[in-house]
Amino acid sequence: MDRSIAIDTSKLSKVYDGLTAIQDLSFQVFGGEIFGLLGPNGAGKSTTLRILITLLRPTSGHATVLGHDVVREADRVRRLVGYVPQERAIDRFLTGREHLLLLGDLYHLSKEETNRRIDEILKLVDLEGKADQPAKTYSGGMKRKLDIACGLLPNPKILFLDEPTLGLDVQSRLRIWDYVRHLRERGITVVMTTNYLDEADQLCDRLAIIDGGRIKVLGTPSELKAGLGGDIVSLTVSAAAMPRVDALASALKGLPFIRAMSTKPTGLDIRVESPEKALPAVLEAANRLDCRLEFIECHRPRLDDVFMAHTGHAIREEFPRAEEA
Ligand SMILES: Nc1ncnc2c1ncn2[C@@H]1O[C@H](COP(=O)(O)OP(=O)(O)OP(=O)(O)O)[C@@H](O)[C@H]1O
Ligand SMILES: [Mg+2]
Asked: Which CATH number does 5-224 carry?
């Protein structure tokens, strides 16, 4: 990976009719990397992407894409980027190839150039076999591949993917991850959004966790996990003992080997220096407070722990156990 700067943002903010969607976002994307914006619904991911591809003007702050300002040099930026929106714009009755031909016209590519690129891209996203059938016969994964093919047609230096695998089954998701990695091998810089922790963890070279319109932390997945320090002891408490979880947390608070705690609908997650030291104290306190433990699990920090530590909440609501619901 080269370390040239492909995208540079400084204090980027967007206010929609009084609602602050993103605030003071400053980050850099390196050339040739897969960079992710990870956040829950409404975090400001699509807004950020739309500013970078010049579809939206920032309310304040600056951003450059390959050295060009997204407001003052919007035309230059547009010629360098491809965009796959979150909501697809596929016509049911057109074939995959027809979609791409139309786009070629839109980008003023010559017929020859368009046909050459279409063949290349269809191969890349593995849609050759389906290219001449109407899109209504495509599965969800195939439609997403066609979306990505459309984003690739202008031969972009940077491809922006908004939630590339939202709602797809596991197999289609894995296949799309493979295509995205393949694009990186070809030197294309990829900026993507996701609210899937596993996608951010496994696909992105670096990622920014964004919540409530602000970047909470940024780094490689391993840096972010190592940055937490310690391990996680995760307690599942019996439904009857749930009301005593706060008391358990208070009893453990202040013990030297405990770094942080967060309650969850089924119990308590405790970040500890070493589980060997912490476990006896945790068990003793749970016993003393009559807080029956159904399950204890220890693990190295995962991206969900990183998200929780930096935002104070889980990326998606965890459902309470069935008998409580
Ligand atoms: N055109 C708009 N007009 C007014 N408010 C908007 C508009 N677009 C987005 N918002 C608001 O800005 C905030 C950020 O929205 P955005 O679409 O950027 O979030 P997101 O992270 O992409 O969410 P999701 O995961 O649901 O796609 C939200 O509160 C949203 O309601
Ligand atoms: Mg979005």
From this structure: 3.40.50.300
Give the per-residue SS3 of 260-321: EEEEECCEEEEEECCHHHHHHHHHHHHHHCCCCEEEEEEECCCHHHHHHHHHCCCCCCCCCC
Q: pLDDT (tens digit, 9 = 90+) per residue, 207-231?
A: 999 999 999 999 999 999 999 988 9
Average pLDDT over all residues of the chain: 92
From the options 3.20.20.220, 3.40.50.620, 3.40.50.2000, 3.30.70.920, give the CATH code of 226-324.
3.30.70.920
- Tokens encoding 251: 């009893």
- Cα separation, 225 vs 240, whole angstroms: 33
- Distance of CA 280 from the midpoint of ligand 2 (Å): 44
Question: Is residue 217 within 8 Å of residue 306, measured between CB atoms?
Answer: yes
Between CA 26 and CA 88 the distance in angstroms is 29
d(CA 123, CA 306): 38
Give the pair of three-digit tokens for residue 319. 């459902």
Instruction: Tell me the residue type at 85.
Output: P
- Residue to mutate, 15, 19, 84, ligand 1, most ligand atoms under 8 Å from C-beta: 19
Q: How many CB atoms lie within 10 A of CB 315?
A: 22
Distance of CA 176 to the CA centre of its chain: 14
* Full-model pTM: 0.91
Pocket of ligand 1 (CB under 6 A): 16-17, 19, 21, 39, 41-47, 86, 195
Which token pair is 152?
A: 């690739």
- 8 Å CB contact between 65 and 6: yes
* Per-residue pLDDT at 325 exceeds 50: no
